[in-house]
Structures are given as structure tokens and as C-alpha cells.
Specification:
It is a single chain. With 407 residues, this protein is α/β, with parallel strands linked by helices. The protein folds into two domains: 274 residues, Crotonobetainyl-coa:carnitine coa-transferase, domain 1 (Rossmann fold, 3-Layer(aba) Sandwich); 82 residues, 2-Layer Sandwich (formyl-coa transferase, domain 3). 36% of the residues lie in helices and 15% in strands. It has 16 helices and 13 strands. The strands form four sheets. The protein has a six-stranded parallel β-sheet, with helices on both faces. A hairpin with a 5-residue loop joins strand 3 and strand 4. It is elongated. The chain starts with 8 loop residues before the first strand and ends with a helix.
Amino acid sequence: MSSPLSHIRVLELSRVLAGPWAGQMLADLGAEVIKVEKPLEGDDTRHWGPPFLKNQQGETTAESAYFLSANRGKRSITIDIRQPRGQEIIHQLIASCDVLIENFKVGSLEKYRLDYGSLSALNPKLIYCSITGFGQDGPYAKRAGYDFLLQGMGGLMSVTGEADHLPGGGPQKVGVALTDILTGMYATTAIQAAIIEREKSGLGQHIDLALLDVQVASLANQSMNYLVSQNTPKRMGNAHPNIVPYQTFKTLDGFIILTIGNDSQFADFCEVAKCQTLLRDTRFSSNQARVQNREIVVEQLTKILKAKTSEFWLQQLEMKGVPCGPINDIAETFDNPQIKHRNMANELKHPKNGKVPTVSNPINFSRTPIVYHQAPPCLGEHTEEVLAEVLGFDKEIITALQQTKII
């Protein structure tokens, strides 16, 4: 079966995470993704380690785990875009490309004639996706933006972490670069929407994505809580601002997560915990009442749950259909039988390392399953192949480009 995007060619001029994440998503969906990297150095994340991949002899290689996480399915070519001949090669490639992804600082590609205006003049059907910290315009447009910075500026850190008055309270970032990943996902959606629209108009367009905008958009119910009430949300640790009980609880031998989303589930919990008296108390009989009396009900539930083991609660509550779960570390996560059943850990063939691990794409199509055809590439692994295949360059031309360090 043909993959959903097997007819699409993408030129990726991006590095680190947000742009490469979008490129990897498109590659998983079947697009041909050509990653353009700086000769000798490549994507910054190639050097972000340890850990680095080890080869079959157990020796450390130049492939960082970070780079491997976001560059599956791509072909890597090295071109020095600072040189006019390198720019010409990009111009030649763009004629046969559907999409370009870049995450350079605003305006910095103009001097290389690789900006949207220059490239859309060569290919009016080109969909050109720019990813920056703050967008193409506005008072912050020229600033550099990194995920950690945007988690802080965009409000996420203000609602992440333990409450300020408790031990360990204070600003806390999320444990992965979530703003980058969400921006990559928004970019993937926007690019596919532009591809669909192009079928009607015959024209490409410029997509302007800012990490700050994405972070604000991703605040979801927290941002609406503020806009509706004008009360600024605060850090609440593992508690939920709109639902009670919906947090971690200490048990006799550890912790569990309790995520009760409606009053029926709370009634089922009370039956298991043999605390039906809570249901007859108007302070706890509805979610709205429980939110208003959060501290009282949480205190009572804490006493109840601390009396028995995590295993007891998880078994009994799951049998009754009450949403709950353990708190797994990443090793326990990959050892989980459901994760194993869903094949979320995979392996890909690698030219230097035999095999490399990868985390599977969570999308499951009924007719056009995702096919993992390319491990994260070595730096410049496909330069000669792409230039010969796409542009028809012969060995003599390629050798000359290598000698002048353009590729």
C-alpha cells in the first residue's frame, strides 16, 4: 500500500527539535524528506550527548540519542548554503519539492536567497514553513527562542510543579521539550492542510509558526480558566484545577494516580474504599462541591489511601472501572505489557551500527500502515545519491563540489 504522503517531497532546513520533529512526522507518513545539514558539523543535536549510540563493537559513535529521536526516515545531504553555488543547488532542488521547513532567525535566509519570496518565485506551489521562537513579526521577532525559555514566557512553568508554599515549590519546566514537540505537531498539521488547499488553488503559501504562540495555545483549559474568571492559575503540584480527586495519592508502600472524572466514578471509588458516607455529605457529592472543598476531601482521601498498598488499590479500583494507575519510570514504561503489545519500541537497520532503537509513531492506519524505511541518517549519508537522483549530477560534478567544500 502507498503511504499517505508518498507523493510529497520535503526539503528540511531545520535543526534541533521543532522543525526536525515535523520532518520526522512527515517522513513517517510517507513523505520523502531530504535533510540539508552543514558540512562537517550537521544538526546541532548530533553533538548533544552523552548518551551516544554504540556500534556493534561497543565503541561510541557520533550518533547522539537526541538526534536519533527526531530524524528517522530522512535522507541527509550536506550543503554549504553560505556559498553561492550551495544556494544554487538549493534553488535547483526546490523546483521539485512540495514543502520546505526552516527554523532560522527571522530574515537570516534572505541574504542566501533562500527566503520565502525568493523560493516561491522559483516554485509558486511551494509550501514554506518557518518555525521561530516568536514569529515573523512583532516586537520580539528578532529574538532567539528555545523551548525552556518559551515554557517560562508562555505560562507553562507557572502551572507546573509543586505549589509555591510547599517544599519543592517554585518554577518547574516539563521534563521534555514539550513546546518544541507541540510546535512540530502544529507544523505537521499546517503543512498537510496547505497541501490539501493547494489541490484547489494550485498555489503554495508561507506558514509562520512561533513557539511562543504554540505554548500559549497549548495552555488549553488553564488559559480559558483565566480568560473566563480573570483569576490567574497557580502551580498545584499533581492536582487538577477543575476536577477533584484528580492527583497522586500516597499509599502504604508508594504512590498511585487517581483520575476521577465524574460523580459516578467517585461513587464507585467510595464503594471500593468503603467510605460511602462521603457521598451523603453535600460538600463532596458533586465534582463542583469537591472542587470548592478540595482541601477537606483530599485530606480524607489521603488517610484512606495510605492504609493499604498500591497493588491493592490498583487491583480493586481497576476491577470497578475507577480510573487509576501507577507512576512508572521510563524503563518500567517500556516494560509495560500494553506498550509491548502496541510495539512502541522498534528497531531500524543502520549502515554503521547494525541496528538502532526507535520509538514507534503512535498513529495506526487501517489501510496504509506506517513503514519505517530509513534510520536516522549519518551526516551527509545521501548527498551523492540525492544530487545524482534528483538533479542528475554526475560523478565529475559531485567531485568538484566536494573539492570546493560546497558539499
